[in-house]
Design a protein that fits this description.
Helix content: over 70%
Distance between the termini: 9 Å
Structural class: mainly alpha
Length: 63
Amino acid sequence: MSDTKTRIRNWGLDHAQLRAELELIRDKYADEDDFEEALERLYAELQAKQDFRKRTIEPPKWE
């Protein structure tokens, strides 16, 4: 059971890190009127989400 709790805690920390990374990306590319910046923001968000998926294979089962 402690192993499950540890995985849940680690997944939660990784998810919090993903949310923080996305907020930093959105603050960096705040001007959505510029097409180039919006495209760069989209690629940066996609890369952050792919890195999150590499860190966590799947969310743990909640008991």
